[in-house]
Design a protein that fits this description.
Mean pLDDT: 92
Number of strands: 0
Shape: rod-shaped
Low-confidence stretches: none
Radius of gyration: 29 Å
Largest sheet: none
Number of helices: 6
Strand content: under 5%
Amino acid sequence: AKMINETTVAIAARNERYQFQNTVIDSALNVSKQAEKSRLEEDYATAITTYNQVLLLLQSVDEEFSDLSASAKTTQAQVNKDIKTIIDEVLKHAEDFIDQGDKAVDEHRFDQGIEFYGMVEPTLKTLPAEDGTAVAERMQGYVDQAKTKVEDAKTARIRYEQEQADAAKAAAKAPKKKT
């Protein structure tokens, strides 16, 4: 009778552990949905923070139950993929702002170009990036590029305005044709 009781207690404890880990996975999936909602709303910082919470939750799922462990690993892989997708989206936004700034400057819309370049750094600040990582280096590269392009656009505007003034003076000095 004592062994039956001990077995019953062990089974109940195992079932509790299984139920706990299953609840953790369910909670992680619910939190993941919140992260996806933030991502769709382009609230990237919140999305990444929330996805990181999912990863923390899933760390408490151990190898005791293979089905739960496999589910946790699959979810972790998807979350890591989603975080990478967000990072890629934000980096693409930064590239697009630089491209739009270049186009505006090429069309002599210097103020608009400078505005686009100015959007690069705030856009990238939505990403948490640890110094020394490839992502942090790319982000810093875009920020540096945008700052350089702002200065280049200011110089180009001055040059363009001077060329326009010189052209206007030359046109005023040119002899007028009589008709």
